[in-house]
Amino acid sequence: MTTSNAEANADASANGAAIPTPSDIASAAMENLTKLDRFNELLNTKAPIALTPKRCVWSLNKAKLYRYTPVVPEDQLKPVPLLLVFAIMNRPYVLDLRPGHSFVEYMLRQGYDIYLLDWGIPGPEDKDLKFDDYALEYLPRVVRKLKAITGADEFSMLGWCLGALITTLYAALRPDDGVKNVVLLTAPLDFADREAGGFVKWATDPKFNADRIVDTFGNVPGEMIDAGAKMLKPVENYLGSYIGLWERLDNPNSVEAWHAMNTWVRETIPMAGAAYRQLINEFYKENRLMEGTAVIRGETVNLSKLTASLLNVIAESDHITPPCQSERIMEKIGGDDHTVLRVRGGHIGIMAGRGAEKNTWPHIDEWLAARSS
Amino acid sequence: MSEKTTFDPFDPTGMIKTMRDKGMEAWAKAMTEAVNTDAYSEATGQMLDTWLKTSGPFREMMQKLVAQSMAEANLPSREDITRLAERFTNLEMRLDDLDAKFDECLTLLRAGGSSKKKQKSS
Description:
heterodimer, A: Rossmann fold, 8-stranded mixed beta sheet, two-stranded antiparallel ribbon, about 45% helix, globular, B: mainly alpha, flat
């Protein structure tokens, strides 16, 4: 038997395919079990993320304002502080994902005085919070505190995703508050094109009843929002991501990046019910911001009053906020210092992906630096 | 070379890998296109709405039952806690308003202090 097995192996080897011996099978099994163990560990543990030193300088309800510890001497800090405003249905630390690959870390090195607004996790008592509250109750207070701390009269704002929508509302409604520069990242502002992809087709369908969702849950569960986002690209999100991880398990850099991103993606948070209702009914379905009919706390949002310098960063392969949703604002805003930056990549990838440090961050820095003196 | 051609029965994702190699890209594209159709939007909207509508009465019944049990056990209900949290938030707003006034006073005092110093030195 042994001789015939050996002969068969020899023949097979000659043909380019070896028949595995029991010891080959055992070692392959061990190798895969070890891989499986590591795979499970990565799926079920949290990566060390958001480690850049910061301290909380203001808080209200669940919202917190953090100041990152500057890394350049005080006299080399740029005089115009930078306020980061992230979306309301995800945690903001994707802006400071992991040491060595963090937008915040990068900008601190360039000499910015950086403040991060964390909206927090809404509780049942926050179900009535609307964009009106975020833009005209919380943000003005944040800005006041930021000015009190820094002594600066002017500041820059960087809003990402729904944070960009809130930033736009604020900058258009309070242009005299000292907003010098506005950076919008993948801003969902214009929902006229139903065929654009993303959530617009689902959200604008007459059968989609945002009122019933909110009436049922109060706040919209994070899992529901997450499932919606993942269903936009179901194969990639539910399968591709994990297969990719399995295949790259022996690449520490790749694994570290995946683990950090997965830690962020997994932390889903609910969205305040009234804000969700407003987003779907007033912004998605009626496109009020672009139509000029959006009313926030009794004030009509006139985009031509947004006169700050504006950098509009558009992700060319964004499936959550397709480029057309961010483009038309350029025709509507006031002022005369507007720039569009198109970056190859997706909604999150352009800021947190591997290419961000080369393709996005330096351009934002370059644009802001020229306007932060 | 031989590793690639050898079937590995202990690779748990072997089957999926083969499937992906053969057509995952096409599958992903087809699925993305499918979820972007009017039919899919209508179907998911309808399903979600029906589910919420039919499960609503049960959910309400459960909520009432829990609220009743909490009241009987002399424990605060979810609504009580929510109301309390709202009051805390209102208090925080008042504190923030006071903080704003305090900051203003400090700014004025500092401005006043520096102008007095200037007067003295002149």
